[in-house]
Specification:
heterodimer; A: mainly alpha; about 0% strand; rod-shaped; B: about 500 residues; Rossmann fold
Chain lengths: ~45, ~500
């Protein structure tokens, strides 16, 4: 455990990349997808 | 190696490892979700992003319960999915188009065909509300390969601007092409779909009226669209029609190509910019129009709603009016002109008007006034309006709205004949963003049909012109700008059957 923590401390990009990807990019994309317009009634008349 | 380079190399390796860790975490989660049974077809369907525009999406997949059968996965709000039986001996007819087609009584067509021929027919309705020719073409390509039709009917042309508007909104939802691409990739994964579903609010599809206020913005999108852009939409429409006709030909499937019926007594939407005239003429024209409108009798004003929410739409007739259970007949409607020719003795399908919204009753009363007699005072006011509109039309010759109102005023004055009919046609043609077929779009249908040996034209619009008083198709057979009534739908199915039965014989 200690060795892992030391590794992560010395190699921050190894954990910063996943944290940023999931914390920012994924959340942003999912939120975009969820709010994309649907083929709602207004387009169907 | 110098120290800075060593440092850079280490950071690059770390970055690569970071990416690998990211991908690994995603794959573990994705794999776990699939193993847990979340990887079904409904999850794979790229439904929200593509919404029917994805050329690579597969809409039909084999029915796991019926060998040789197919199931659709349109994932189209409120539309039912289809279970299509394995292809048998019956002559399979596929119907393609938008909401009109979706509302066609396919069973009536099937029964008509079976009654006319000793063979057996199977009619599958693939009409989808809101679909314009772009999405119809995507569906068409897959269906003709997968469902092995013997005959196809294509009734599309009202939704080119409806579909374009939806495509514009979809495009605007993404900040740029890269984001759209990434979101598309994410949506093709189970993880992405489940996360999206968790955050998505259900669309409010329950009360049409609650959204009618949004419709103004929907039409305003197309204000100031130059006429070349409108023509470009019709060009794309023609191209899509040609694509489908060619595809049907390649598969040896006879195609019945229809020129959709459109309502002459439905006001155009957008007539700006006024092209070829200067600011002074526009200003003068607007002032004249205001003066003319002040002369309109109240009943004429009722036929020219300013807001879209005041227009009559198909759903105002009541969704529950499709079956009458007590067998009674209601009073004849006011406002319906007697039909002529092949439609003379037919019932338009409005006998269930007890379910109508009050605004539909008011609308038909105004129509009764329009088709009826004028009092002397009304005639004088209308004459004055006609003169003012005539001057307005000189200032604003490309205005769809002025042209339409001039036609309506002259009609209200009792004028009939080619001059007046032409004004309604011209007004529809000048509309920059019509929500219905018009002379421009139907001319393209006729041109396309003439270019293909395997295509038979059904000029549905011309058929209803034949059956309508003064050749002006109106609210006798239509329930809004583009939708035909249930009675008209039955008549059209009978008409289709007469043609299809001969095409079926040619094929076998």
């Amino acid at each position: 455990m200690k060795r892992l923590l030391r590794f992560l401390w010395r190699h921050p990009l190894v954990w910063i990349v996943p944290v940023l990807t999931y914390g920012v990019l994924l959340v942003y994309l999912v939120q975009k997808l969820a709010s994309a317009p649907q083929d709602a009634f207004i387009y169907r008349i | 190696m110098p120290r800075p380079l060593q440092f850079l190399g280490r950071q690059l390796l770390d970055l690569l490892l970071g990416v690998l860790v990211t991908v690994a975490i995603f794959l573990v989660v994705e794999g776990a979700l699939r193993i847990a049974g979340h990887g079904g077809a409904e999850v794979r369907a790229p439904r929200h992003l593509a919404a029917g525009f994805d050329k690579n999406a597969r809409i039909f997949e084999p029915d796991t319960e019926v060998e040789g059968g197919w199931r659709s996965r349109f994932s189209h709000a409120q539309s039912k999915e289809l279970a299509i039986r394995p292809k048998g001996d019956a002559t399979r007819v596929l119907l393609f188009g938008g909401s009109n087609t979706a509302g066609f009584p396919a069973r009536v067509l099937q029964d008509e065909l079976n009654a006319k021929n000793q063979g057996k027919y199977e009619v599958v309705n693939l009409g989808r509300a809101g679909y314009g020719s772009t999405r119809v073409a995507i569906l068409f390509r897959e269906a003709i390969e997968v469902l092995e039709p013997d005959l196809v009917v294509l009734y599309s042309g009202h939704n080119e601007f409806v579909e374009k508007s939806f495509a514009m909104d979809l495009e605007a939802a993404w900040d740029n092409a890269l984001v759209a691409r990434l979101a598309g990739l994410l949506e093709s994964t189970v993880t992405g779909r489940l996360l999206t579903e968790a955050l998505r609010e259900e669309p409010d599809d329950t009360g049409a009226y609650s959204r009618l206020d949004q419709w103004e913005a929907e039409y305003q999108k197309f204000e100031q669209v130059p006429s070349e852009q409108t023509a470009a939409v019709w060009d794309a429409y023609e191209e899509n029609l040609r694509y489908m006709c060619a595809l049907a030909g390649e598969h040896g499937v006879p195609l019945l190509l229809c020129a959709p019926v459109w309502n002459r007594f439905s006001a155009p939407r957008i007539d700006t910019p006024h092209e070829g005239v200067d600011e002074a003429a526009i200003s003068a024209g607007r002032k004249l129009l205001v003066r003319a409108r002040k002369k309109y009798p109240a009943q004429l004003k009722a036929l020219l709603p300013e807001k879209d929410k005041d227009r009559v739409h198909i759903f105002d007739f009541g969704r529950k009016n499709t079956t009458r259970t007590d067998g009674s007949r209601e009073e004849p409607l006011p406002g319906l002109r007697p039909s002529v020719g092949w439609l003379e003795a037919q019932i338009p399908g409005f006998e269930r008007h007890r379910h109508w919204e009050p605004k539909v009753r008011a609308w038909y009363q105004a129509l009764a006034w329009l088709h009826g007699e004028r009092s002397e005072a009304e005639a004088q006011a209308l004459e004055a309006a006609k003169n003012l509109l005539g001057q307005t039309a000189k200032e604003l010759p490309t205005s769809a709205i002025v042209t339409y109102e001039l036609g309506l005023v002259r009609y209200a004055l009792g004028e009939r004949g080619p001059d007046v009919t032409q004004l309604f046609w011209r007004a529809a043609e000048l509309d920059r963003a019509p929500r219905k077929a018009n002379p421009s779009s139907n001319a393209r249908v006729l041109a396309v049909a003439a270019d293909f040996d395997t295509v038979t034209l059904h000029d549905s619009d011309a058929r209803f012109v034949e059956g309508s008083a003064d050749g002006l198709v109106g609210w006798e057979w239509m329930v809004d700008h583009c939708h035909i009534s249930s009675g008209a739908g039955k008549m059209l199915m009978q008409d289709f059957a007469n043609v299809l039965v001969t095409l079926g014989r040619t094929k076998h």
